[in-house]
Design a protein that fits this description.
Blueprint: H1 2-8, H2 20-27, H3 31-39, H4 41-64, H5 71-80, H6 87-96, E1 136-146, E2 149-158, E3 164-170, H7 176-188, E4 196-199, H8 203-206, H9 208-216, E5 220-223, H10 233-246, E6 250-251, H11 254-272, E7 275-277, E8 281-283, H12 285-295
Parallel strand pairs: 1-4, 1-6, 4-5
Antiparallel strand pairs: 1-2, 2-3, 7-8
């Protein structure tokens, strides 16, 4: 009503308009209500401009995450940038502007048991946590499709930080692929003696080559049960995150796929992707490693 009165009242630019008193009387609006509305206009304009700027910041953060971040991570990223803004406000603005995070899809696994497989006990028991980096790792293999043929990605993820500390890509998924990822993890992850490596019961992980590598690295092998995705949920969940957030399902070339996977793991995920830690709040995997190393460093 107040906006209508403002548009129809007589002014220098609208000499054929009506008086405010007549419009208010006709519409049944107290003149005090109209004048209060007009007095609050500067504050409304300032709020509108503030929200417009905030929406632009949200769009930049959302685009920078490949469209992956939803409300919690966008809010956390804004707070890290020094923007003290209410979570519900971010939720409202993202809803009103149709900005949303990605939804993960379930994947078809590659697990194939060897005919003469040698299984290991489950040392994790679906407890995908660790108090220190280098105590417990999980690993798995997934398939990537390119127009030049399939690639396979093997990973080793530290359960204390959720950092991908070892990974390898190849056009096959023989045992040497997860062994390469394992050796990378051992070279950069500062693993403890007796560190647990937990996987499914795929033939790559039950192979003599993989078990030999574990012994050489002073690691213990752990495996989930047959056909139970929940027994290796942390590793499988990471692949779901990768495929949801990277946004590509078929690459034109293997070289492009390799470049995208490298950038996602080493630049976007390990160093930039925010993950909620129960003690530290939203921080990246590398920041989590640094915090935990500092917490467990003996005082001089």
């Amino acid at each position: 009503m107040c906006r209508f009165i403002d548009a129809e009242k007589a002014t220098e630019t609208n000499p054929g308009g009506y008086s405010v008193a007549l419009l208010c009387r006709t519409l049944g609006v107290p003149r005090s209500t109209y004048y209060a509305h007009m007095a609050s206009r500067p504050a409304r304009l300032a709020r509108w401009r503030s929200e417009e700027l905030l929406v632009n910041e949200i769009r930049v953060l959302h685009a920078g995450s490949r469209g992956a971040y939803g409300v919690p991570r966008v809010h956390a990223a804004l707070v890290r940038a020094g923007r003290m803004v209410n979570l519900k406000r971010i939720e409202r603005l993202m809803r009103e502007n149709a900005i949303s995070g990605v939804t993960r899809r379930r994947r078809r696994g590659l697990t194939r048991q060897a005919k003469r497989a040698v299984f290991a006990a489950d040392l994790i028991g679906r407890d995908f946590t660790a108090v220190r980096p280098g105590m417990r790792l999980v690993g798995d293999i997934t398939e990537l499709v390119t127009l030049e043929g399939k690639l396979y990605l093997a990973t080793c993820i530290d359960l204390a930080t959720r950092e991908v500390i070892g990974w390898a890509l190849a056009d096959h998924h023989r045992a040497e692929l997860p062994v390469a990822a394992l050796r990378m993890a051992a070279g950069r992850g500062q693993l403890e003696e007796g560190c647990i490596m937990h996987t499914d019961r795929g033939s790559e992980y039950t192979s003599a080559e993989f078990r030999t590598a574990l012994r050489e690295l002073d690691m213990r092998q752990s495996m989930g049960r047959v056909g139970s995705c929940y027994d290796n949920a942390a590793a499988e969940s990471w692949f779901a995150l990768l495929k949801a957030e990277i946004g590509t399902t078929v690459w034109p070339t293997q070289a492009k796929a390799r470049a995208d996977i490298f950038r996602f793991i080493e630049v976007e995920y390990n160093r930039a992707r925010l993950r909620k830690h129960r003690e530290y709040g939203y921080i990246t995997p590398l920041e989590t490693r640094a915090r935990l190393r500092q917490d467990f460093t003996p005082a001089a």
